[in-house]
Every structure is written in C-alpha cells, then in structure tokens.
Amino acid sequence: MSAPCLFCRIASGEIPAAIVAERESCLAFRDIAPQAPVHVLVIPRVHASSLNDVSSPSVLADLLALARDVAQQEGVAESGYRVVVNTNDDGGQSVAHVHLHVLGGRALRWPPG
Ligand code: AMP
C-alpha cells in the first residue's frame, strides 16, 4: 500500500500544521511558504487528487464555505482576497490532494503568471 499523501497526513494529525479552522468534512491550515500576509489552504479530509476528482457537491460547498469563513476570520473579507484552486500540471498544482488557497492582506495582481 502506498504511503498517504502529505495533506492526508496533515488531516490525520500525523504531520503538524498551523490549523486555523476545522469542519466535519474539511480543514484549513496556514501555507508553509506564504505568498501573501494571509495564505491559508483549505482541504477535504477525504483524499481527492485534484478538483477534477471531488465527486461530492456537498464537499465542494463545504470547501468554498470554509474558504469564505477563513477570509472573515483572518480579517480580509472586506479588504478583499482570492480563492485559487491550482489544478494539474498547467494549473501549477504541486500537491496531489485538492486544496483551495485563500490569499489576502495585500493587493493581488491580475492576471496571474
Ligand atoms: P499547489 O502548488 O497549488 O499544489 O499548492 C501547494 C501548497 O502547499 C504550496 O503553496 C506549498 O507551500 C504548500 N505546502 C507544502 N507543504 C506544506 C506543509 N507541510 N504545510 C503547509 N503547506 C504546505
């Protein structure tokens, strides 16, 4: 059996992370290499490799709701923030467990690189 993925190990508590919020189906923790003053990752507890592989609409809703709640909790809801889901190679995904980036606390440029 292959070893669980990095974010599964964070979800199980095997690997420590700076967890900022938890729900039944998902959790949020600080990115280890923040790209903005607020940079939090939101993941489902159940493994899915990418957004393409999340079959449950309720889990998708939970992920987005938690991203919104994290922005509020981190104090960037009013100033503004961005939710990003890098998907597969061209999307720049480096960890194969679906995750939402919540970025805020500075003006973010558009378009992304
Ligand atoms: P992506 O490139 O969209 O797949 O994003 C993966 C993110 O995971 C990157 O922003 C990394 O900095 C972050 N990351 C990798 N390992 C950890 C870790 N152990 N704890 C928190 N964030 C991590």
Structure description:
By secondary structure, this protein is an alpha+beta fold. It has a single domain, classed as HIT-like (HIT family, subunit A, 2-Layer Sandwich). About 25% of the residues lie in helices and about 20% in strands. The chain has three helices and five strands. It has a five-stranded antiparallel β-sheet with strand order 1-2-3-5-4, covered by helices on one side. A hairpin with a 7-residue loop joins strand 2 and strand 3. The longest helix has 17 residues. The radius of gyration is 14 Å and the shape is globular. The chain starts with 5 loop residues before the first helix and ends in a 9-residue tail after the last strand. The relative contact order is 0.22. The mean pLDDT is about 95. It binds adenosine monophosphate.
